[in-house]
Amino acid sequence: MELSFLIRESGFLLHGMLITTGLTLGALGIGTLLAALLAVLRLGGNKFIAHIAGGYVEFMRGTPLLVQLFIIYFGLSPFFARVTAIEMTPLVAGILGLGLNAGAYISEIFRGAIQSIPAGQMEAARSLGMSSALAMRRIVWPQALRHAVPALGSSFAALIKDTSLVMVIGVPELLLATKQRVSATYEPMQLYLLAGMFYFALTALVTYAVRKWENQYRWTV
Amino acid sequence: MDGITDTPLLQVSGLTMQFGDNIVLEDVSFDVRGGEVVSVIGPSGAGKSTLLRCINGLQPFRKGTIRVGDIEFHGGKRLSREEQHRMNLIRRRVGMVFQHFNLFPHMTVLANVMEAPIHVLDRPHKQVEAQARELLQRVGLEGYEDSFPISLSGGQKQRVAIVRALAMDPEIMLFDEVTSALDPELVGEVLGVMTDLAAKGMTMLVVTHEMGFAREVSSRVLFMADGGILEQNDSARFFSEPHTERAKVFIEQVLH
Amino acid sequence: MNTRLVPLLVIAVFVTVAIVVLAGYQNKDRNAPSTQPSIKIAMSGQYPPFNYFDNTNELVGFDVDISKEVARRLGCEPKLITADFDGLIAGLLAGKYDLIIGSMAITEERKKAVNFSTPYYISGAQLFVHRSSNISGGKDLPGKVVGVTLGTTYEEAVRKIKGTKVNPYTGVPDMYLEMDNKHIDGFVTDRLVGLYGITQAKRDFVPAGEPLYKEIIGIAMRQNEPELLNDVNEALAAMKEDGVYTQISTKWFGRDISAAEE
Predict the structure, then answer these.
(1) Domain residue limits, chain C
(2) Residues B65, B68, B71, CA angle at the centre, nearest 5°?
(3) Closest partner CB to A220 (pick from B105, B116, B119)
(4) What is the Cα–Cα distance from B189 to C217, expressed in whole angstroms?
(5) What is the pLDDT of residues A10-68, one digit of tens each?
(6) Do B165 and A217 touch (CB under 8 A)?
(7) What residues in C contact A77, CB-CB < 8 Å?
(8) Is the domain covering C3-120+217-253 a CATH 3.20.20.80 domain?
């Protein structure tokens, strides 16, 4: 194990790291917003819409992420370019696929958290004259969010690891970059260990950030 | 009695509510006039809490009418947008205090009290804050404005809950067994606040097991059993000369 | 209520960063001034010495040089794309790139899905074993464990040898490691790739016997583009005529690999 080798290879892997980070953040952004929307729709009054949202969640959770990525990248790209102005590059497909998938999983976390808030909270809010929407926004959601934080943290960490899957559609993220360096140097052990460390660093960062977020909530156990 | 107006503030007519095959309330009708303090007492399962919850729309009901001031709300299977709107208006005039407080744990005491006046009534922040602080002081909670509910005792929490409802300037206050979940030594401070409120002329409908309050502070008593009002009378006369057998038995059991 | 704004802000930051990364990635190509049309060429980038990343992380190799030359003769700017080998044809058919110049062997199966150019080199499937091994060729394989790369013709071929246990891997270096650990008794890959790799990685492996079969390598493209097929074949023929092909071949292999080894 030569230090100069490790340093040089780390430099090459850095671009892959950046792409992996971009994938994670983009997917998290899309996923969290989608999850919030899905949770609200499923708990809302319109039964028909609630069923559709529920169907989406079941489908995304019941099929492999890899299959979803293939469908999006190979199947949907012609339509995508026509509907939006963005070209469906592997990176776009990766962020979209990861985001749509994460959205389904995270929506379950939100839904569970909202349902765990005692009914009395909503009752008190409504008896004070608040509409359901206002009560949800100011009373239920903030509490649900706090309860969702630990589960959200695990989801985020899982997402970081899931990003390696997009390698199969050619996104130059960390794992693909590692494989390319392995072919070039014939040193799988060192390089995979290096990659593992990078992934761990990312996950540790997320876990730390989530813990900080948790500490914000001083008003509950 | 002094201070009691003639026109009823609250009118309940023909209220019927069932849960599956179980008839919880059957054709309940009564009035509450301005300034009255009406206690609702009776054995468990009589439908007392359900009655309160029907009045402010937390509990849907099959048949009947709720009238608060000039707003009328009709029950039914499906509510039109009109009806829902009317219930929202009713809720702004009717304050409710719950057995389990239901304070908002993620807000300070002061924020709890200020929340609805600001976001529902759109009142200016300064004015709401001033009123909130004054109300908290009146119930002896000065100094607790920035505490979170988690650090308060049950009695303190309930006092905050009362103040939170009062901040909306309701015409009538509903109390749903508000001392039942409190340790005995804390019951007094809450009853004290309620007595104070009554003395100042607030119209109150109180579901309670505290017979002392029912007898001394309320002006009238509704005795409920099996989903209906079995007997109602001025409080003094109810306790000294109950008419129905059921009421007699009940009084004997709770007052001996 | 500060505590409510923070998560929203954080999400906003997430999405913004992602959009910036996205935009930067797309713009990388747009910033290069080009007056020529471009042609996208795909390969795995994990196949030294044909296509791989060198010590400065540049994509280089025999296939890379051929790609650049073909593009030049077509009057196009070459854009080289890498993706895993077993996803290359799917990507081609989905229109993500226009040519595969990634050491893809011409087979009847593949011809059903894509068009192939005239061959641009000839090699063979070679079994490699430890120097100390007593395996002398394909006939000694039954009962042994053999490594192959996923999705290659080698995988198919070795699976046909009855009694052989086949272990698929995603790349050649993984197989070297498995050889070191004695998890596999041998591996099959392209003869030229194997010989090059063994020297580079300083391993004591040797080719066992003759190549299992000859492999003819072509450039793959979509079937609905006959003019492209014509143009590419013309480019290849021209390269061989004026000696550029021999130059490239000698640079990497010391000989002309358009014909099988003597």
Answers:
(1) 3-120+217-253, 122-214
(2) 80
(3) B105
(4) 92
(5) 988 998 898 998 899 899 889 999 999 999 899 887 889 999 999 999 999 999 999 99
(6) no
(7) 94-96
(8) no
CA distance linking residue C76 with residue B220, whole number of Å: 96
Please name each of the domains of chain A with its CATH number: 22-174 (1.10.3720.10)
Comparing C-alpha atoms, which of A97, A93, A100 is closest to residue A31? A100
Query: Are residues A183 and C176, on separate chains, in Cβ contact within 8 Å?
Result: no
Binning pLDDT at 50, 70 and 90, where does residue B42 land? very high
R_g of chain B computed on alpha carbons: 18
pLDDT of residue B132: 96
- The ipTM assigned to this model is 0.91
The CATH architecture one would assign to domain C122-214 is 3-Layer(aba) Sandwich (3.40)
- Chain A residue numbers with beta carbons less than 8 Å from the beta carbon of C176 are 186, 188
Could you tell me which chain B residue has the CA closest to the CA of A125?
A: B116
Dihedral (Cα; C182, C188, C192, C197), 10-degree rounding: -20
The tokens describing A153, both together, are 């943290």
Query: Mutate which of C46, C93, C170 to disrupt the A interface (most A C-beta within 10 Å)?
Result: C46
Q: How far is CA C154 from the centre of its chain?
A: 13
pTM above 0.90, yes or no: no
Q: Encoding tokens for residue B108?
A: 């300070």
A72: three-class secondary structure by DSSP: helix
> CA angle B121-B122-B127, nearest 5°?
100
Question: What is the DSSP pairing of strand C38-43 with strand C77-82?
Answer: parallel
pLDDT recorded at residue C31: 46
3-state class of B213 per DSSP?
helix
Comparing C-alpha atoms, which of A112, B120, B107 is closest to residue C4? B107
Would you state the structure tokens that stand for residue B208, as one six-digit string? Answer: 């309670």
